[in-house]
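Hi F.,

I've been meaning to write this up properly since the lab meeting, where we talked about keeping a consistent format for the predictions we share between groups. The idea is simple: the sequence comes first, exactly as it goes in, then the structure tokens exactly as they come out, then a line or two of notes. No screenshots and no reformatting. I'm using this chain as the first example so we have something concrete to point to.
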Amino acid sequence: MSRRILTLDRAKEWINKFNLDLHFTGVGYKQSKAPACKDLDIYVDDDIDKLEELLSVVPQRLLLSWDYNQHVPSSNIAQRINSWHEIYNFVISNNLHERSR
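Output, unedited:
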């Protein structure tokens, strides 16, 4: 898996605590995420390599900026964002929240 089971379980607990409607899917360690992402409108990651493999699969790709990935060019692959608040604003301004309903 991309995330250890314990980490995935913690993430699921957190989204349940805040009543968020999010779905997590594990694809296996070093496995392509493309098949699991084929119906997504948006994908957020801090790893540009994971976003790059989704170029023809997910229309909206966001690179969450951290100190360790500031040097990575992203312009042709993903839009760089700096916070979860920016992700929220991106989803709302692009009406992505309406598509899942």
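Notes:
The first strand starts at residue 42 and ends at 45.
The chain has two domains: 1-31, 32-99.

If this format works for you, I'll send the rest the same way.

G.
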